[in-house]
Structures are given as structure tokens and as C-alpha cells.
Design brief:
GO cellular component, one term: plasmodesma
Pfam family, one: Stress-antifung
Structural class: alpha+beta
Helix content: 25-40%
Membrane topology: Single-pass type I membrane protein
Protein name: Gnk2-homologous domain-containing protein
CATH class of one domain: Alpha Beta
CATH architecture of one domain: 2-Layer Sandwich
Mean pLDDT: 75
Subcellular location: Cell junction, Plasmodesma; Cell membrane
Length: about 180
């Protein structure tokens, strides 16, 4: 045998769905009925089932944590610090300032809300990564990252490497290249 055609999961009988225009006839859509899936349903029962699907989707999307709006959750899950520190006047301070500023600007603007960066100063490189939960707006992402950097600075001071993982975002910097 021949493989059996895949049937739709939802019982949408007697419904027409527009088919994509062909290259030879792009003026009117071709309509094809969906295959029947068993016996006939009473019209009121069919309408109830068709109404149920959009309502179920609205409920699912309204309860999904990836579509929430409002202030980001900046509760810390962990803040880790490298034991080594840099001193006053160390070129690493300038590299770190560049990396953190770049991450705070670039991550909220990126589509995936995820960014890596490296400082352009060859005498003391700094590397960084930041990410926000995919459902956050750019403004909420920026707010969360600002909180993460503040928590890192308050906890780690002049550490040559640190990571802050908050509920809705994370930031990490090191003096060596890494993959998060």
C-alpha cells in the first residue's frame, strides 16, 4: 500500500478552506471541502464545537506566562561572582563598562532578546551575554537587565566575572570568551 491521507484532528465538516492560488489562475481562489470525519453532526452541535476552539485558544493564551505584560519579575534566582577582582585604573573597568552598556542597549532590541558582545579594547577584553524571557517587551527586558546589572554590581563589586540570573532575565560577563 498507499499511505492514507492525514485527516484533520478537529471535526470541521462541510467547511471550505481557500487553497493557494496557482500560477496559472491567480484571480479566484480554489475551494475544497474538508473530508467528513464520521457521521453528520447537528448544526447547533457543530457550531458549538467551532466556537469552542477559539474560546479555548483565548483562554490558553491569556494564561500563558510568555504573553504576560506588566513589570518583569526581577527576583534573583542566583548571583555568582568570580573571586578575582580588578583594581582602580585597571583597563578591564573600561572594557566592562562598554560590555554592560552594549548588552543593556542591544538585548532589548534584538528579536530573540538574547545578545553576546565583546569589548573593542585589546589590552583588557571583556565578554558578555544577556537574555530576557522571550515574552517580555523591549522595555520590560531593559528594565529587567538594569536590575540584574545593579544586583551584580552590589553583590560582586569589582569581580572580573559575574552572573545574575533573575526570573525574567540574566546577565553574565567574564574576562574570557564563553557560551552561555
Amino acid at each position: 500500500g498507499r499511505p492514507q491521507p492525514v485527516r484533520p484532528i478537529f471535526p470541521l465538516t462541510d467547511t471550505v478552506v481557500p487553497k493557494a492560488h496557482s500560477a496559472t489562475n491567480n484571480h479566484t481562489p480554489l475551494l475544497h471541502p474538508l473530508p467528513k470525519i464520521g457521521g453528520s453532526m447537528a448544526p447547533s452541535r457543530r457550531a458549538g464545537r467551532l466556537l469552542f476552539l477559539p474560546l479555548a485558544l483565548v483562554h490558553l493564551l491569556s494564561s500563558c506566562p510568555h504573553t504576560t505584560s506588566g513589570a518583569p519579575n526581577t527576583a534573583p534566582l542566583s548571583v555568582l561572582c568570580n573571586g578575582a577582582v580588578y583594581g582602580a585604573g585597571d583597563p578591564f573597568a573600561e572594557s566592562l563598562a562598554y560590555v554592560l552598556a552594549d548588552l543593556l542597549a542591544a538585548t532589548p532590541q534584538s528579536r530573540a532578546r538574547d545578545a553576546y558582545t565583546i569589548s573593542p579594547y585589546p589590552n583588557a577584553f571583556a565578554y558578555g551575554h544577556a537574555a530576557c524571557r522571550a515574552g517580555l517587551t523591549g522595555v520590560d527586558c531593559a528594565s529587567c537587565l538594569g536590575s540584574a546589572v545593579s544586583q551584580m554590581n552590589a553583590t560582586c563589586g569589582h569581580a572580573v566575572g559575574a552572573r545574575a540570573v533573575l526570573v525574567d532575565c540574566s546577565v553574565r560577563y567574564e574576562q574570557y570568551a564563553f557560551v552561555a
